[in-house]
Amino acid sequence: MADGISIAFEPLDSAKGQDPGDLVLFVGEDLALSERAAEIAGGAASDLVARAAGVERFKGKANAAFTVTAPAGLSAERLIVVGVGPEKDRGKLDWATLGGVTAGKLNGRRATVVLDLATGAPSAEQAAEFSLGLRLRGYKFDRYKSKKAEGEETGATRVTVLTAEAGGMKKPLRAAEAVAEGVITARELVNEPPNVLDPEEFARRTEALEKLGVSVEILDEKALRKIGMRALLAVAQGSAKEARVVIMRWNGGDDASEAPIAFVGKGVCFDSGGISIKGSGGMEDMKGDMAGAACVVGLMQALAQRKARVNALGAIGIVENMPDGKAQRPGDIVTSLSGQTIEIINTDAEGRLVLADVLWHVQQEYKPKFMIDLATLTGAVMVALGQEFAGMFTTSDELAERLTAAGEATGEKVWRMPLSPGFDKLIDSKFADMKNTGGRHGGSATAAQFIKRFVNDVPWVHLDIAGVGMNAPSSEISRSWGSGWGVRLLDRMVRDHYER
User: Fold this and answer.
1) CB 366 within 8 A of CB 376
2) CB neighbours of residue 175 within 10 Å
3) Contacts made by residues 436-441, CB under 8 angstroms, sequence distance 24+
4) 348 marked among binding-site residues
5) What is the mean pLDDT of the chain?
6) What percent of the chain clears pLDDT 70, i.e. is strictly above it?
7) How do residues 123-174 score in pLDDT, each as one tens digit?
8) At the topology level of CATH, where does 175-497 sit?
9) Mean per-residue pLDDT, 405-409
10) Was 289 annotated as part of a binding site?
11) Alpha-carbon span 297 to 467, nearest angstrom
C-alpha cells in the first residue's frame, strides 16, 4: 500500500463479474469495449457507454473521462469510462498518466479496473506503469491537519486491477512499486516543515535505507571540519542547526569494486538567504530548498528496493542558511575543500557552495564514472524554462542525450542550457579565485559555471530543478507541493543504460 491506495492485480479471465463499487472501463475514439470488458460489465454496458458518451460529448480522447452514477443494468455503484485516444497513437500512450487519471476518479472508494482494450491487452510493463500512476496520484500529505475538509474521503482507495498479464507482473510490478515508494519518500521530505526536518533529522531519516542494503555514512560537523568542507560549513555557520553530509552507497553490480555512478543533492532545509536575506513574501517555500537532496534519497531507495544491478552512490549536503551574528557576510572569503578560494558576494547564493565541497569530495574519494547533481539553485532558470523543464548543464553529450530521452519517457523533462568560458569571466573575483555570483544576467548559467570548477574531468551534469522540485504544478500523477521530481527520470536513465 502506498499512502491512501491499495492495489491488487488479478487475471482478467478469472473475473466472473465486478463487486459493487466503481467499475472502470477503457475505450478509444470508437467507444468500443474489449470483448472481455463487455462480459465483465454486463450486457447493458456497451449501449450505456455509447449513450452516455453522447450526452457527455465524450470522444474517447486520451486521459479524458466521465462517470455514470447508478448505471442502469449494471451492478456497479458508478461506471467510470476513461479514454485512451485513437489506435494510431496507442504506442505513445502514457500509462502512468492514465493510472493517475483513474485514481483521480476514485477518492476513497472500492473499484474494479478492467485494464483491457478493444485493440488488445496492455503488456505487463504497461500495466505496471499504470499502477505507478495510481500510487502517485493517491499520495497525500495531510498529517498536520487535525480536521479533514467537508466531503473529503478519509479511507484508502481499494483497487482491483483485472489484466491479462497478471501472471507475469511480479518483476515489473516490483520495480514500479520501488519507484513509487522512492518518489513518495522524496515528496515526504520536501513537504515536511523546516522545524521538523532540520539537517540532523534529515540525515537520521536516511538511515532507513540501511534496511534495503544501502550503506549510509553520516558526517557531522566535526568530521566535515576534519575533511575540510569549509565552503559548506560557511553556509551553515549562521544556524543553530549543525550541518550534515550523508554518503549512501548501493552496490548492486556484479563487481562491488567497480566505480559507481554518483548523484549529488543540495539539501538546504531552510533558506532565509542569510545576511542577504530574502523578502518575506513566499519565504515559507524555502523549506523546499532541499528538493535535490530529497530526490537523491528517493532514487537510492528506488534502486535498492528494486535491486538494481548497478553500483550507485548518493551524496547530499544538508544545511540551514540563517542570518545569525555568526553567519558569513558579503565580502567574506572562504576556502573550499578543493583549495580554491571563493569571495562571498551574496549569501543567498549558498547552494553552489554546498555542492562545490560535496562534488569535490565525491570525485576525489570515490572516483565515479560520472556525477549528476540536482539543486533548486536559481530563480533564473524559472524565468528561462518556467515549470515545464529542469535546466540541464553538462560536460557530456552522451549524458545529455540519455537524460533527455529519459525525460521524454517519464515526463520529467530537461532542457540543455549553455556552459561557456564567457560565463567564467563573470565569476572571476578581484580578491579570490572566484566569486559566488556573476550578477543578474545569466544567473543559472553562471551558477552552473561556478559548480563546473569543482568537477575536474569527471563527466558531469547539473540539473537546476528550482521550477519543478517544489511548489510544482499539479499533474495527473501529482497533487503534491513537493513533486518528488527526478526520481523517475534518473531511475529510467539508470535502467536503460547502466544496469547489467
Assistant:
1) no
2) 21
3) 436/342, 436/343, 436/344, 436/345, 436/346, 436/349, 436/350, 436/352, 436/353, 437/345, 437/346, 437/349
4) yes
5) 94
6) 97
7) 999 999 999 999 999 999 999 998 877 656 556 689 999 998 878 899 999 9
8) Aminopeptidase (3.40.630)
9) 97
10) yes
11) 19
Rounded to the nearest 5 degrees, what angle is found at the Cα of 211, between the Cα atoms of 195 and 189?
Answer: 25
- pLDDT tens, 251-306? 999 998 999 999 999 999 999 999 999 999 999 999 999 999 999 999 999 999 99
Annotated domain spans of the chain: 5-165, 175-497
* 135 noted as active-site residue: no
> What is the rounded CA–CA span in Å between residue 422 and residue 449?
10
424 among annotated binding-site residues: no
Position 2 scores a pLDDT of 45
Q: Tell me the residue ranges of DSSP E strands in 115-240.
A: 157-163, 215-219
DSSP secondary structure string, 41-109? H-TTHHHHHHHHHHHHT----TT-EEEEES-TT-SSSEEEEEE---GGGGGG--HHHHHHHHHHT-TT-
| Number of residues assigned to the chain | 500
- 16 pLDDT more than 60: no
> Looking at the DSSP assignment, which residues form a beta bridge with residue 197?
none
- The residue from 78, 105, 352, 488 that is catalytic is 352
Residue 14 is classified by DSSP as G
Catalytic residue among 109, 204, 278, 309: 278
Looking at domain 5-165, which CATH architecture does it have?
3-Layer(aba) Sandwich (3.40)
Contact (Cβ atoms closer than 8 angstroms) between residue 206 and residue 297: yes
Pairwise CA distance, residues 322 & 340, whole Å: 24
Does the annotation mark 36 as catalytic?
Answer: no
SS percent in the chain: helix, strand, coil, step 5: 40, 20, 40
